[in-house]
Amino acid sequence: MSFDRPAIISARPALTAELMERTGLDEEILRRLVHRFYDRVRADALLGPIFAARIRDWGPHLDRMVEFWSSVALMTGRYHGAPVPAHATLPVDWTHFDRWLTLFRATAGEVCPPAGAAHVIERAERIARSLHMAVQDAGRAASAVPALRGGGADGRDGSA
Ligand code: HEM
């Protein structure tokens, strides 16, 4: 039942209330989802080292990820960040996103009610696909930079 759930701060309270009712999700469930998921990520042989190289202090990252999932799943507007630049230059391909999704699906299935798990998994899959495209685009852009220096066929060095 939704009326005994703790109050939630949202930029769109009516929409958030409707989503909580429909999915069975709330902030506490999302917090558990995020913490348990990143426990798994950190212990994972493929993903763990990528995160370990970039995140020293996990407290702020986990808080940010709870805000992200609150915004994505319950439309609370609590997350103000930019996921694309945070991922575009990571040394990852679809294998990494696939592993990320496998761990996320398993954790969502354990922590969320079934409708809530389906809701967050559908969004995670969509976002993973768009982050993967951003990684691919960044790779293509880097390798497509023309050589402007070093003297071309016309003898100019491109610095003029
Ligand atoms: C290959 C899989 C992934 C890897 C290796 C990865 C890795 C990382 C790392 C290392 C950071 C910290 C960046 C920094 O602070 O410098 C980060 C941030 C973040 N990640 Fe991922 N990630 C992956 C997939 C995803 C997916 C699928 C989502 C969403 C469904 C996601 C959402 C986020 C968000 C929201 C942030 C915080 C961005 C910010 O506001 O600064 N990540 N990720």
From TrEMBL:
Q: Keywords on this record? A: Heme, Iron, Metal-binding, Transport
Could you tell me which SUPFAM superfamilies the record lists for this protein?
Globin-like
Q: Which Pfam families match?
A: Bac_globin
- Record-linked InterPro entries: Globin-like_sf, Globin/Proto, Hemoglobin_trunc
Q: What is this protein called?
A: Group III truncated hemoglobin
